[in-house]
What does this fold into?
Amino acid sequence: MNSKTMSFPHETKITDQASKTINKICYGVDTMKRLLKTIISVSLSIGLLAGCSTGSMFPGNIRSYDRGKIDEHVVRANNDFAFNVFRQLDSEDGEKNIFISPLSISAALTMAYQGAGSTTRDAMAETLGYNDMEIEKINESYKNLLGMLNRKDKKIELNISNSIWYRQGRKIKDEFLSVNKDIFGASVSELDFSDPESADKINRWISDSTKGKIEKMIEPPIPADVVMYLINAIYFKGEWTEKFDKNLTFNSEFHSGNGRVSDIMMMYKNGNAEYGAGDQWKAVRLPYGKGSMSMYCILPEEGISVNDFIADMNTEKWEQIKGSISETEDVVLQIPRFKIDYGIKELKDSLTAMGMGEAFTGGADFSGIREDIYISSVMHKAVVEVNEEGSEAAAATVVEMTEAAAAEPIMFIADRPFVFIIADDETGSVLFMGKVFDGADIG
It folds into this structure.
């Protein structure tokens, strides 16, 4: 309503002093509004800068989660995949130390799964355990699972980050990028892959996301047919709920599976422990922080090959092991202080053996991302250090997606002897036949 047309039942004349006072108040209100806008703008800028500085969308902008929306079938599928891929890698690297993050691998592949179609999607679903699962249920579970895993505990640091990097000028479907931003909190960057510094930028993101534990996954120059990288990075650092006493750590021997005996530093604890045992194995649970996360150490009985034990490991056996563990008195606990650096491991052959080989061929259907694209490589690297204080671990998975080779043009270059025929096409009658054999005589 216009103040000039306002009327009051009992109109009163306003003095000059009163008018000045009202003007001051109005000016003050306007000034305060402008100040609040400035404060809000600055706060938002600081928040955005803080979020960008980590190079990570997790845990920066996704904190909330609903535990009830994490479907147990999706968790089960991830665990089944974990044991499947671990068994596969153990069959390949039976004489080596192995350390992986199955969640990192499955998360990166599930990002790619968003754009898979037809039989490629079926094969990936079979390998990832997503058969008969609606994509909406998978995504809802992942979004809340990742939010939950990034929760706070003063003695546990867990950061899960996702990113997508695609070649400048290549059209990637908006829906694919949007769902990965929304569900996986993925940061998306368009880069000039022909620039030698592009590989360095991606490697810096991986390094930042793993606190320097994994520094170089992509070798420059980036091949000309690479269109996109889907990357998951996980960093974990946890303090034991009850630390080992460094003064009790002692020099000991470790009898390797290949018969070699090595000197190692053995951590020691004696007293109450969470311990369990079953047919041909014993296990302990070592919790971190407030106890929401733990390391489980599983020791096959003497005479049982660890590789044979792994070959029989699955989700059912894992649940059996966890269910056997309880608080037990007077347990002598000795665990090596160790570091493992596993990778960079190319998982293409392993995943092909697990059933998703089609995704690695030119016949793959990732039309939900763009046409004529397939997975050319799945690289995984993981490192872990376990000592008296706790554990520190990091892993990164890079899914490299490449343009399928363009169909070769059909070539007919008659630069060698050939036959020629002149025929009547209505009757099919051959009218003339000939052979060009010597080029010197056809000029």
In short: The radius of gyration is 32 Å. Residues 76 and 424 are 69 Å apart (CA to CA). The longest helix spans residues 16-53. The first strand starts at residue 156 and ends at 167.
